[in-house]
Amino acid sequence: MRARFILSETWANLTRNVSMLLSLMLVTFISFLFIGASVLTQAQITKAKGDWYDKVEVVVWLCPDGTSTSANCAAGTSPTPSEITDLQKTIRDELADVVSNINYVSKQDYFDNTFTKQYPNGEFQGRTLTADDMQDSLWLKLKDPTKYQVVAEVLSSKEGVETVTDQRQIFDPVFAVLNRATAVTAVLAGVMVLVAILLTGTTIRMSAASRRTETEIMRYVGASNWTIRLPFILEGAIASLIGSLLSCLMLSVIVRVFITGWLAKSVTWIPYVNQMTVLAISPLLVLGAMLLSVIASTISLRRYLQA
């Protein structure tokens, strides 16, 4: 009987305060759309890092024939096969815990398989280069991509090594931009959540004020505080539920149209978030919205409907 009464009161509140209900739904929708976008952006960064960092390698560029500014290349000639073998042995001995695989790439292999793919016919900055203009190199696969500095410290001073480069340097500026975008989105989401909390408390308090005579009568006949307050709390929770569900639906549409439907087909070398990612974060968004609404409503009513 009490549950039936609470549900009827909740329905009455919803039908009497349609405009306030729509306002609360809209603010919740926008707030949690920003939150969801922030979470999806960070998930995209994490997904891309996991895929790219597993593929990137540390490249040890060996001294070229001719002049080089590196002190390790004072001889003016590229390392001999035996010197390259010794360097590989040094890597296996001193960096066994860091390096998982060593791949030697000759000048000709690099020219045929890498350089000419980026620069057809070997044309680079107005010049036509050949394999003799390239450098021998060692490509190192790391067990932990973050241990690049350890490799650089060991090999940078070795004779025959001109430079040590980490391919992650190509991606880190991209990730930095995405991280800043995530931070901006998170700040906007935080502001919108604060607005949602304030609006929820105000809406519920105004709803209670419009029915103050009824709540006073309920108190006189012995109704408990929770019996009086629960319909108003449910009103806010239902509005937040609908608003958060709409935000999840919009995130799904955005991912389907702009990510999997367009970007993934245009740029195929990046792993993207998908509908499963949206499904994974949706329960958290819905529960978070309802929890914030319940907390805001409870605090607001506790101050307004004093026993």
From TrEMBL:
Name used for this protein in its record: Cell division protein FtsX
GO cellular component: plasma membrane
Organism whose genome encodes this protein: Bifidobacterium oedipodis
Magnesium found in the keyword field: no
Chief location bin: membrane
Swiss-Prot/TrEMBL keywords: Cell cycle, Cell division, Cell membrane, Membrane, Transmembrane, Transmembrane helix
Pfam families for the chain: FtsX, FtsX_ECD
Gene3D superfamilies, sorted: 3.30.70.3040
Signal peptide per UniProt: none
InterPro entries reported in the protein's UniProt record: ABC3_permease_C (IPR003838), FtsX (IPR004513), FtsX_actino (IPR047929), FtsX_ECD (IPR040690)
Compartment list: Cell membrane
